[in-house]
Amino acid sequence: MKQLLLAVALLLVLGALGAGVAHAQVPQTVTFSARITNGGVALTGSHQLRFRLYTAATGGDLRWEENHGAVSIDDGLVHVGLGAITPLTITVLSGAPLWVEVELDGVAMSPRLPLRSVPYAVRAGDAGQLGGLQSFEFARAVHEHDAAYVNAGGDTMTGHLHAAGGARLGEIAIGAAVHGALGWPYETIQLHPAHNLRFAFGAEQRMMLGSDGRLQMAQTNGDCPTGWFCNGHFWDLTVASILYSGLAQRSDRRLKEDIRPAEGGLSKVRALEPVTFAWKRRTDPAERHYGFIAQDVRNVVPELVDATADGTLAVETTAMIPILAQAVKELDAQNAQLRAELAELRRRVPASSASPPVSQASRTVLAGLILLLGAGAIVALLAHRRS
Questions:
Q1: Run of H or E residues at 369
Q2: Using CA atoms, how far apart are residues 356 and 362, in angstroms rounded to an integer?
Q3: Alpha carbon of 236 to those of 232, 306, 321: distances in Å?
Q4: Helix %, strand %, coil % for the chain, to 5?
Q5: How big is the chain by its Cα radius of gyration, in Å?
Q6: How many C-beta atoms surround the C-beta of residue 78 within 10 A?
């Protein structure tokens, strides 16, 4: 019966292969040497050799197989490189115990030989702690963060990231003076002077802080005319109260089109119902305000009433000033007509006759003019405290 008397990886050969090569790649084959005899007589000549790796000394699962075909044997000695034909991958050499079975001329020899460690396997054991990556793929304790250490596909970390000297993300510097000297770099987010800071939710940009100091929210193109400097772009701004010393409303003719005269001011003023009221949520129970009810105004001048997303109505009280001005003009025109009629009546009456009394209609118009002028002054004051 053929017997496998000696099977050992040549440690000296493997050591010689690795000597003098700093960080050389680990050889991908394992040298197998043995002396084969048959009834005490060493085999000589060409013989068919096949090698297998099993998970047990007998039976077990087949993990790897390689056929070397005809191999020359001299005085029973055979030398082959396992893995030269069928690679010995890390899946095969996972670290679990394995046994080598040698098949000679179609007959499996016994016993199977346990697979032992060699110097490169010890080194590979250390590499196994790195998840299979090469040692140069890991950063030292002190290093520069360049492309060799950064996973472009994204990395995940837990805990806090502390950068004592600041950090840079693209053109955004945090706690570092990257784009110019800073007085307080440790508490500054700095961008390139030609770039803007944008905030987006999904694919939609919702806010931008421009390099020129502009703050833009819910972007609306064309709100700030070319050549103008606008500190902020806001489609809607909701506040509880504003304390200010001066307030100017943009009214440049260059911003307007389809300009038409205002009409019906007097009839609109007659239909409006000024009220006093108290807010439901207020700090002073005795505090009262003057204003209008938006639902009532909408029935008279719907253009002055807007609705928020939740249906709450708001009145543009400053827009009532032009309506009041038009109402005063209409009253003034009526008063001028009455004065002209009165003058004509006086001209027709003889000088010796007593001057006729002022008609009731004239008194009514004059009284209405006085009241309207007073109401206009009140609404102008209310415009500074929008209800």
A1: helix 360-382
A2: 13
A3: 11, 11, 22
A4: 25, 25, 50
A5: 49
A6: 22
Instruction: Measure Cα distances from 8 to 29, 62, 77, 375 in Å.
Output: 14, 21, 12, 112
How far is residue 130's CA from residue 49's CA, in Å, rounded to a whole number?
A: 36
CATH number of 2-128: 2.60.40
* pLDDT band, very low/low/confident/very high, at 129 (cuts 50, 70, 90): low
Helix (H) or strand (E) holding 329: helix 320-348
Name, of 1-15, 116-130, 170-184, the range with top average pLDDT. Answer: 170-184
Residue type, 223: D
Distance CA 60, CA 181 (A): 71
Q: What are the tens digits of pLDDT across the range 161-199?
A: 777 788 888 888 888 888 888 888 888 898 988 889 888
Q: What pLDDT, in 10s, does the model give residues 66-94?
A: 999 999 999 989 999 999 999 988 888 87
Per-domain boundaries in the chain: 2-128, 169-233, 262-347+357-387
